[in-house]
């Protein structure tokens, strides 16, 4: 099991408090605090514990959880410092809190950690939903920013994390906004990287973004599956919502041909960062009957991911990428697929 090889990616401050070092957010090259990767590993270890009843994995997750929750210098004024990069916020929009909430939800669910739930509630209180724009505001007291995060995948991942925490009202409003037009695709079905809004700022950001055509194509090719992944998680809870049968969702799923996924090898945001091989199983398990690929091709993508970035002994992804500390922690995306699959089979 891959998780048995995880220890080499942890710093052990004491016998009962560990963390995973931060990376540089892949090709974005933003220096990150240890919070993101520590949270990813907490999720992976706790799901491993739940699936295999391996109490050693539970113990390791609790050690990481103590670092996250107890006297953590990166936790200030109701939020975590996620990154240090010029001319932007320290919390990484609303996806930073999303990564933390994913871990806190599972610390409460699988390790019965009440402090984790209290911390989650504190973070959630800082995340104001802007119904007019159809997205949440980033909260960053360190630089005084409190404004809508217009990056679509950030919003979708936060919605999925909030759903993990049992927060359904604003999540439902967010999905309503996607259905009303904030989710956009091009003629091929490729997902637009920004929320589509009618505000002056939203239109200005979209105009400036589309002018960078070469960058836009590279980003959107590499992020397509990462954008669909949280929608697959949300679809499990909101399967009756009309958004999940909309023409735009169908178009973005039809974009997922084997050829288009293979093109992600040429994007710096693809196989060497967003890891399609780890993300496609979740998407296919939910939307597979609407996609132009089959199980054999899903496995072929995973195999290709392993060839490009994987260590064949551990099956962890540490090779040939600009941010191995973050890439290796993203095994948690595959873990969440296994978690969801197990829950679905237990329900049926």
Walk me through the topology:
Elements: E1 11-14, E2 17-19, E3 31-32, H1 35-52, H2 55-69, E4 75-76, E5 79-80, E6 83-84, H3 95-111, H4 114-125, E7 129-130, E8 135-140, E9 145-148, H5 152-164, H6 169-182, H7 200-211, H8 213-237, H9 247-254, H10 258-262, H11 270-274, H12 276-287, H13 295-309, H14 324-329, H15 331-347
Antiparallel strand pairs: 1-2, 3-6, 4-5, 7-8, 8-9
Helix pairs in contact: 1-2, 1-3, 1-15, 2-3, 3-4, 3-5, 5-8, 8-12, 12-13, 12-15
Can you describe this structure in just a few lines?
The protein has 15 helices and 9 strands. By secondary structure, the chain is mainly alpha-helical.
Q: Which short descriptors sum up this protein?
A:
Glycosyltransferase; mainly alpha; about 350 residues; globular; 9 strands
Walk me through what this model shows.
By secondary structure, the protein is mainly α. The protein has one domain (17-341): Glycosyltransferase. 56% of the residues lie in helices and 8% in strands. It contains 15 helices and 9 strands. The strands form 4 sheets. It has a 3-stranded antiparallel sheet. It has a two-stranded antiparallel sheet with strand order 1-2. The protein has a two-stranded antiparallel sheet with strand order 3-6. The protein is globular.
Mean pLDDT: 95
Query: Can you name the CATH architecture?
Result: Alpha/alpha barrel
Cα-to-Cα separation, first versus last residue:
27 Å
Q: What structural category do the secondary elements indicate?
A: mainly alpha
The share of residues in extended strands comes to: 5-15%
What is the CATH topology?
Answer: Glycosyltransferase
- Which geometry do the CA atoms define? globular
Low-confidence stretches: none
Helical proportion, percent range: 55-70%
Main sheet properties? 3 strands, antiparallel
Number of strands: 9
Instruction: Order the strands across the largest sheet as they lie in space.
Output: 7-8-9
The CATH class is identified as Mainly Alpha
């Amino acid at each position: 099991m891959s998780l048995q090889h995880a220890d080499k990616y942890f710093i052990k401050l004491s016998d009962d408090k560990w963390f995973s070092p931060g990376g540089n957010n892949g090709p974005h090259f933003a220096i990150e605090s240890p919070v993101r990767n520590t949270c990813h590993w907490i999720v992976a270890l706790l799901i491993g514990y739940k699936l295999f009843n391996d109490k050693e994995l539970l113990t390791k997750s609790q050690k990481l959880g103590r670092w996250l929750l107890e006297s953590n210098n990166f936790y200030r004024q109701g939020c975590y410092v996620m990154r240090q990069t010029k001319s932007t916020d320290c919390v990484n929009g609303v996806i930073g809190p999303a990564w933390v909430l994913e871990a806190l939800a599972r610390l409460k669910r699988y390790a019965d950690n009440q402090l984790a739930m209290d911390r989650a509630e504190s973070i959630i209180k800082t995340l104001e939903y802007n119904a007019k724009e159809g997205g949440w505001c980033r909260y960053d007291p360190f630089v005084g920013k409190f404004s809508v995060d217009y990056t679509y995948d950030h919003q979708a991942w936060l919605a999925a994390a909030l759903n993990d925490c049992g927060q359904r009202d604003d999540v439902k409003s967010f999905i309503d906004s996607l259905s009303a037009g904030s989710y956009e695709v091009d003629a091929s079905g490729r997902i637009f990287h920004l929320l589509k809004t009618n505000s002056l700022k939203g239109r200005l950001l979209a105009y400036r973004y589309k002018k960078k055509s070469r960058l836009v194509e590279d980003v959107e090719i590499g992020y397509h599956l990462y954008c669909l992944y949280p929608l697959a998680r949300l679809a499990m809870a909101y399967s009756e919502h009309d958004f999940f049968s909309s023409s735009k969702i169908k178009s973005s799923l039809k974009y997922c041909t084997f050829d288009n996924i293979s093109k992600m090898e040429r994007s710096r945001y693809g196989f060497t960062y967003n890891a399609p091989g780890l993300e496609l199983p979740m998407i296919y398990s939910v939307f597979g009957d609407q996609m132009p690929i089959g199980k054999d091709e899903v496995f072929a993508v995973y195999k290709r991911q392993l060839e490009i970035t994987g260590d064949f002994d551990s099956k962890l992804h540490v090779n040939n990428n600009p941010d191995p500390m973050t890439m290796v922690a993203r095994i948690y995306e595959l873990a969440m697929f296994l978690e969801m699959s197990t829950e679905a089979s237990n329900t049926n």
